[in-house]
Amino acid sequence: MTDSGLDLLAGDSGGPTRPGHRRASAPQKKPGGRKFVTIAIVIALIAAGWFAWGKASTWLNGPPDYQGQGTGSATAEVKQGDNGLDIAKMLKKADIVKSVDAFYQLSITDARAAQIQPGFYKLRKQMSSEWALRELADKGNRVEGKVVIPEGSRVGQIVTAIVKGSELTEEEVTAALDKPETLGLPDSAGNNPEGYLFPATYTIEPDATAEELLQSMVKKTLQVEQDLDIEARAMALGITKENALIVASLIEYEASREEDLAKVARVIYNRLDQDMPLQLDSTVSYVSKREGDVWTTPEERNSESEYNTYQRQGLPPGPIGSPGERTIEAALNPADGPWLYFVPINFETGETLFTQSYAEHLKNVEVSKDYCRTSEIC
Fold it and tell me: How far apart are CA 114 and CA 121, in angstroms?
């Protein structure tokens, strides 16, 4: 190949073509890319239109909502502190209502929303927000039990209260009590739940077992012990926290007026310090299961039970009921005073006389008996 051949090739790449030679044409672009762009734009426009239509529809017609009373069954839990939005989210998650907004917007404007109380409710699936609100505002739809344990309650009374306030049977509660090792009792309780089932109001969830309920009562007692710092405060008095609970349980039955709680505690400690038997009728009644009055018979006071504080020195071996916080506080913070005796002289008002003198105490006892001769209360 000569040098002129190279020049020809070079000229062919950029210069004019020679006669007899046709220049190669550039390849044409395929139209596919434009089509894809067009389709994407169309899809975006459709999506935007759909979104705008949905927003406009919601604005015009309200948020999505089911119609009617719903079908089937569903359990809804309203927790303590839940607001309208919290409830709406819970209902939507359970498919009770169709959308959060439908229920929430209704709850903002409807006064019935303020009537909704914490608890479990038996509702239906796919209800309208109107029906869901109506059912939640009706306390009759709450399905959990509520058990109220008064201060000073004893195990037998607690069993009765549980059966009355829940769907649990006496057999179920008794069976759970027969396995005290499963209730979370402290070692110091000696597997005796008396005094460790804290008096309070308990909400029982659906399908809760007797064992779970009793465990929560014991847990509450242990929590109160911690909150009140019972162990350290009892130690400052020279007693154990177990003895503080025993004293508190005695106060529950020996005093009724708030101002007398700490004074009764002082009488108990004064008698213990002087090695005097406590001679409390409440401990005798605990053994004999006497109810209806405050007195005991000579036969009852002659019982050989360890709980008989007429016959045995010191505190009974365990609480005689479940003390509440007020009597626990009294046991941990006794009043100052020399008293060794006390007796109520008015069983309607709870008025009680305290004295250091046995002779004066006998006179006070006669005043108490005179009151009871004319009153059916005692």
Answer: 16
State the angle between helix axes of 230-237 and 210-227 in degrees (0 to 180), rounded to the nearest 10. 60
Q: Is residue 25 part of a domain?
A: no
87 Cβ partners below 8 Å, 6+ apart?
78, 103, 107, 116, 136
User: Using an 8 Å Cβ cutoff, are 332 and 261 in contact?
Assistant: no
Residues 120 and 151 occupy one common structural domain:
no
Give the DSSP H or E segment for 371. Answer: helix 358-373
Are 365 and 373 a contacting pair, CB within 8 Å? Answer: no
Domain final position from 141, 174, 198: 141
- Name 79's Cβ contacts closer than 8 Å, sequence gap at least 6: 86, 118
What's the confidence (pLDDT) of residue 224?
97
Name the DSSP class of 228.
T
Reported confidence tier of residue 3, pLDDT bands at 50, 70, 90? very low
* Contact (CB, 8 A) for 361 and 343: yes
Q: HSE on the CB side for 356, CA within 13 Å? A: 6
Report the domain count for the chain: 3
In a domain, 197, yes or no: yes
Amino acid found at 270: N
Largest CA distance in the chain: 151
| CATH number where 111 lies | 3.30.1490.480
| Cα gap 177→159, rounded to integer Å | 9
Q: Which residue has the higher pLDDT, 43 or 144?
A: 144
Write the burial class of residue 153 (CB in 10 Å: 0-12 exposed, 13-18 middle, 19+ buried).
Answer: buried
CA 252/CA 279 separation, integer angstroms:
16
Q: Which domain holds residue 282?
A: 230-373
Of 68-77, 219-228, 308-317, the least confident: 68-77
Token pair for 34: 């434009």
Same domain membership, residue 209 and residue 253:
no
**CB-based burial of residue 23 (10 Å sphere; 0-12 exposed, 13-18 middle, 19+ buried)?**
exposed
